[in-house]
Amino acid sequence: MDPFHNPFIAEHTGRARTIPLEEFSPANPKYMEMDVWQPYFSRLREEAPLHYCEDKIIGPYWSLTRYKDIMATEVNTRVFSSSSTFGGITLMDQREELPMFIAMDQPKHDEQRKVVQPIVSPQNLESMEKLIRQRTQKVLDALPHNETFNWVEKVSIDLTNMMLATLFDFPFEDRALLTYWSDSATANTLGGGHIDSEATRERILAECLAYFTRLWNERVNAEPGSDLVSMLAHGPATRNMSPREYLGNLVLLIVGGNDTTRNSMTGGVCFLNQNPDEYAKLRANPALVESMVSEIIRYQTPLAYMRRTALEDFEMHGQTIRKGDKLAMWYASGNRDGEAIDNPDQFIIDRARPRQHLSFGFGIHRCVGNRLAELQLRILWEEILQRFSKIEVVGPPKRVFSAFIRGYTELPVRVSR
Ligand code: HEM
């Protein structure tokens, strides 16, 4: 049986060709969960690169699906705001505002970003490399052989969770809480999981804030340290934050460093299984790991889109985006745009310009942690190649019910030497 056989794709490919465009809502979380999103976005890129939709749940919104349009919008911060005051970076408007610097405009955005930037300085990355490698080796060495297990849980979650604990200098024995808070912050309330309402989410995030407030209080009166809590507690632009803003920035840093890298760790295993020739190429030439990591991140596009809100009327593709309208820049689609990327639907580990993708965004909000994520993935694959001749996917992957997070909850695999 082919674990990647998708029983839904034929039907959706047909539907994507015929559905009236005004009836189509690209942000339906089922499209990503069922992995049937591509034909819809391909049609939008061709026929409606700026698409308007009146969604019953999230309200009216625009979608941008071409690479170049997304880049142009990212840099037009005068017209397109990220601010949580207008709804922030996801299409669903939040009931209660949660300020964080990814959802701020200038100048406050830059001031707060500068406070945490040193966590990913080249020197800091270099000093973390040894620790990341040791942990990766330990996790891989503990994997069962000739036995099916869930790669998401045993490898991707474990590694990204330990990384987060290091970045925050978080008590190691409690580190599972970080994954729990990250999942709670991003879960779709309609997904059937533990976050069944916004009230439940707020209650769990309040627990997160209480825990981190203890860490803040310990560190604010100590010498400035090199962890994220200490940086925030001492940073000129963050030391006087309200508790709500502290929570917002914590959520940003926890989610930013967690889901995205985790899902790239799982995505890589999927893509190499779907493309055995690329897997053979990698085994024959392990030096390709570096360019493969970028290709994994492009192909996975762990965050499907970012939202902006128009601060004034704006003309594009003969239509007017009105002041106050929300707009999704679909990175997942831009990364499959043949006008910008050759053979965009193919997973090719030795592309000429592998870092030319939209997965980290662009402009002033471009991902702070991009080099760290690449480092973690590079080490993971270097260590995998040292140990296993094959990681075989033996059952269908289960994907996250979300239009925002493109990820996996389960990937059954077997490893062999
Ligand atoms: C911002 C993706 C890993 C922290 C972003 C943005 C994207 C993104 C799309 C928004 C860009 C924009 O609006 O233009 C990713 C992906 C990752 C990853 C795909 C892994 C493969 C990380 C890691 C960290 C991190 C490991 C933590 C250390 C952040 C922060 C921001 C951000 C703090 C906000 C930047 C700002 O607003 O200035 N990321 N990220 N990310 N990311 Fe990442």
UniProtKB/TrEMBL annotation:
SUPFAM superfamilies, per database record: Cytochrome P450 (SSF48264)
CDD domains in UniProt: CYP142-like (cd11033)
Matching InterPro entries: Cyt_P450, Cyt_P450_B, Cyt_P450_CS, Cyt_P450_sf
PROSITE patterns: CYTOCHROME_P450
Cofactor(s) listed: heme
Superkingdom of this protein's organism: Bacteria
Keyword terms of this UniProt record: Heme, Iron, Metal-binding, Monooxygenase, Oxidoreductase
Sequence similarity: Belongs to the cytochrome P450 family.
Name of the protein described by the UniProt record: Cytochrome P450
The species this protein was found in: Camelimonas fluminis
